[in-house]
Amino acid sequence: MPYLAKDVQDSRGPTADPLTGSTGRETQTARGMPAPMALAFILIVALIIAYFSMKSTVIRESSDPRFQPLGVSEIKAGLGRLQNDALPMVALEPANGPPIEQQSRLGGPIWAPDTETTWPEDEYGRPLLHVAQLNFAEFDPPEGFPREGLLQIFVRHDGTGVPLVSTDELSKSETESPLVTRWYDAPSGGRSLSVPDSLREMTKGMLASDQARKEGVALRPVRQTLPANPYAWPYWDEVYLNLTRRRPANDMAAQLQNGLKAHFDTIVNAYGGHWIGGHPSFSGEDMRRTKSALRGLDRVLLHIGFDKHVCIGDAGAINILISRHDLLQRRFDRAYCLSEA
User: Fold this and answer.
1) Distance between CA atoms of 191 and 110, rounded to whole angstroms?
2) Backbone torsions φ then ψ of 324, nearest 5 degrees
3) Distance between CA atoms of residues 144 and 300, nearest Å
4) CB-CB contact of 16 with 23 (8 Å)
């Protein structure tokens, strides 16, 4: 029987359309699996992956203490840690009347030995801003601090009295560092150097009062020991977040948890405005939390806060930190200054 043209076409399968390239088998995949079956297979695989991913998350969270209910004993343990890590400090309260030559002060004139006759300047010949003069013989200082000697702290400024303080100071050279210190282990004799006129007129800088800029504010020391700051590193993560972000296990835990914020604020407010020793306090984030290179700075050489004499931006603060090792060696030139506006 003779072959017809139709029979030849059927034996070779459908002929592709010369314009579209279609063979008429759009309902099958390139490997012969029907499209609905392929979609079902993909959906099943996705569900399997999602199931095991969710199961892994549940297992991980069940073993992570951050996802466990918060019990009363844990709250008490966290508060106990803050108390156990209490450090002695000397609060520095403003006193009446201008300070004498070697007396501790904020701002104002500085004491200088007979060999020094000029106010310290930066590399551009601009007078440095005098932040504080600390006479340790007036204090009952915490462990590691000098029992006597005079420390003067200056900062470079922007020309208006605003400190130039970088959050990356450790990478800067000595001439670029915003912090400048002068240390006299046995001050005697000498005289007082008046504040340069350019600094006396900087009414928009950190020294907010005429007394601080021109005469200085005498400081009265008050020795005390206070708990660790729950808002500073490492207590922010290990105490504050751990105790305030978790679900309470029962009504008693919920009641204690609700009072934590007020309790933490009471701790920090007791520090006062200015101090040496103790724990630091920040208006923003403690940079030691994210910069591991700063974590060795475990002593507060000086904290300056906010009052009628000092205003750093919008109620900001200055923390001058130092490691215990450098403090014992009296290497005050290695202190780190962090200003928060």
Assistant:
1) 8
2) -60, -40
3) 11
4) yes
Q: Which residue ranges in the chain fall short of pLDDT 50?
A: 1-12, 17-20, 26-27, 29-30, 58-62, 167-175
Q: In the block, which residue shows the tokens 């279609």?
A: 22
pLDDT in tens, 148-173: 999 999 998 887 777 776 544 444 44
Alpha carbon separation from 203 to 17, 30, 159, 161 (Å, rounded): 87, 80, 11, 8
Distance CA 314, CA 161 (A): 15
From the list 189, 90, 74, the residue with the least C-alpha distance to 137 is: 90
* Residues 6+ away with beta carbon under 8 Å from 100: none
CA–CA separation, 54 vs 29, rounded Å?
32
In contact, 197 and 155? CB cutoff 8 Å = no
pLDDT for the residue numbered 56: 55
- pTM value? 0.77
- Where helices occur in the chain by DSSP H, the ranges are 5-11, 35-63, 72-84, 197-200, 210, 235, 242-244, 251-258, 260-269, 324-328
Distance CA 317, CA 320 (A): 10
Q: How far is residue 321's CA from residue 319's CA, in Å, rounded to a whole number?
A: 6
Residues in the chain: 341
Placement of tokens 């996802």 in the chain = 67
Q: What is the pLDDT of residues 11-31, one digit of tens each?
A: 445 555 444 455 555 445 445
- 204-253 pLDDT, tens digit per residue, is 888 999 999 999 999 999 999 999 999 999 999 999 999 999 999 999 99
The token duo for 184 is 């006299």
Closest CA to 89 of 230, 220, 225: 225
CA distance 282 to 289: 12
With a CB cutoff of 8 Å and minimum separation 6, the contacts of 315 are 283, 306
- The CA angle 62-66-72, to the nearest 5 degrees, is 105
Q: Report the C-alpha gap between 116 and 128 in whole angstroms.
A: 15
DSSP state of 53: H
